[in-house]
UniProtKB/TrEMBL annotation:
Ranges for domain UspA: 6-155
Organism the protein comes from: Canavalia gladiata (Sword bean)
Domain of life: Eukaryota
TM spans (from-to): none
Protein name (Swiss-Prot/TrEMBL): UspA domain-containing protein
Signal peptide per UniProt: none
Length: 157
């Protein structure tokens, strides 16, 4: 009986903490493990929604298109950096999938976990203290409580 493919998702962004979590995942969870699919998830922030006056509206289409292009460029840059780490760690035999979402990171991450039926979610963390985490919130804390899979939170040394 053939074993089902295991899906491990790593949420990546432009921070070094997420790239460290990806490296950790590859070396500790994926290396020498058969039937693994690595899903790289990048979440773009939601577009700004403000009430604009008439003067702003004239220029808003240009601004929105520049912001959309910047978002696409940033997503591609992050994914290329993540794939470079994978190649450096000799994971060319692992099947990889790129996923780009848009919205509040914690909600998008949990939604993609459920949609793709991910087995393990790997996240980097800022390593904030209690007070900062209480005021700013924590994507990793939220996902640890709400994601419908095992969650590994990797703290950057």
């Amino acid at each position: 009986m053939e074993r089902k493919e295991r899906k491990i998702m790593v949420a990546v962004d432009e921070r070094q903490e997420s790239m460290f979590a990806l490296s950790w995942c590859i070396t500790k969870l994926i290396s020498d493990t058969p039937n693994v699919k690595l899903v790289l998830l990048y979440v773009k922030p939601p577009p700004p929604t403000h009430s604009f006056n008439a003067a702003w509206h004239i220029f808003s289409r240009d601004v929105v298109s520049v912001m959309e292009k910047h978002g696409k460029d940033l997503a591609n840059s992050v994914m290329e950096s993540a794939e470079a780490i994978c190649k450096k760690l000799n994971t060319t035999t692992i099947e990889m999938e790129r996923v780009v979402g848009c919205g509040d990171a914690k909600d998008v991450i949990c939604s993609v976990v459920q949609k793709l039926e991910v087995d393990t979610l790997v996240l980097g963390t800022h390593g904030y203290g209690f007070l900062k985490r209480a005021f700013l919130g924590s994507v990793s804390d939220y996902c640890a409580r709400h994601a419908k899979c095992a969650v590994v939170i990797v703290k950057h040394p």
